[in-house]
């Protein structure tokens, strides 16, 4: 199952099953240099699984769109996903926005959980 999160989910706790995919979709305009990135994942219940940018349909060159960061619920327990919107070449002082969510993973697909 896919669990979809957006800006309104910042600071919340979500319940997922092992084997689920967590999809975080946030607005971004990469031409400004500010991009969403993983700031950290605490706990061992979730792992990063992908990162993609999709331009908005109604914008031209240089327009904004959506950054989609994907995570996998790998084992039971609790993890926190922290994201930041920043200019990576300028370092942490350039952070202009943060997003964080706690993910509680219950049992689920045992094939994914083992290992």
N- and C-termini, Cα separation: 21 Å
Tally the helices. Answer: 1
Mean pLDDT: 89
Radius of gyration: 15 Å
Main sheet: strand order: 1-3-6-5
State the major sheet. Answer: 4 strands, mixed
CATH second-level architecture: Sandwich
CATH class: Mainly Beta
Low-confidence stretches: 109-115
The amount of beta strand, in percent, is: over 45%
| Element pattern in H and E | EEEEEEEEH
**Which structural class fits the helix and strand makeup?**
mainly beta
CATH T-level topology = Immunoglobulin-like
Annotation, overall tally of beta strands = 8
Helix content: under 10%
Features:
115 residues, mainly beta, Immunoglobulin-like, four-stranded mixed beta sheet, disordered C terminus
Describe what this molecule looks like in 3D:
- With about 120 residues, the protein is mainly beta.
- The protein has one domain (about 1-110): Sandwich (Immunoglobulin-like).
- The protein contains 1 helix and 8 strands; from the N terminus they run ββββββββα.
Q: What's the arrangement of secondary structure elements?
A:
Blueprint: E1 2-5, E2 13-18, E3 21-28, E4 35-42, E5 46-55, E6 65-73, E7 77-86, E8 97-108, H1 110-113
Parallel strand pairs: 1-3, 2-8
Antiparallel strand pairs: 3-6, 4-7, 5-6, 7-8
Give me a quick take on this structure.
This protein has 1 helix and 8 strands, in the order E-E-E-E-E-E-E-E-H.
């Amino acid at each position: 199952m896919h669990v979809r999160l957006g800006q309104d989910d910042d600071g919340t706790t979500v319940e997922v099953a092992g084997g689920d995919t967590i999809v975080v979709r946030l607005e971004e305009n990469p031409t400004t240099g500010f991009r969403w990135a993983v700031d950290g994942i605490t706990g061992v219940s979730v792992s990063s699984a992908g990162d993609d940018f999709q331009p908005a349909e109604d914008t031209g060159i240089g327009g904004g769109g959506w950054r989609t960061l994907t995570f996998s619920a790998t084992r039971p327990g609790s993890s926190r996903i922290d994201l930041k919107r920043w200019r990576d070449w300028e370092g942490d002082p350039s952070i202009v926005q943060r997003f964080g969510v706690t993910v509680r993973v219950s049992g689920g697909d045992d094939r994914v959980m083992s290992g």
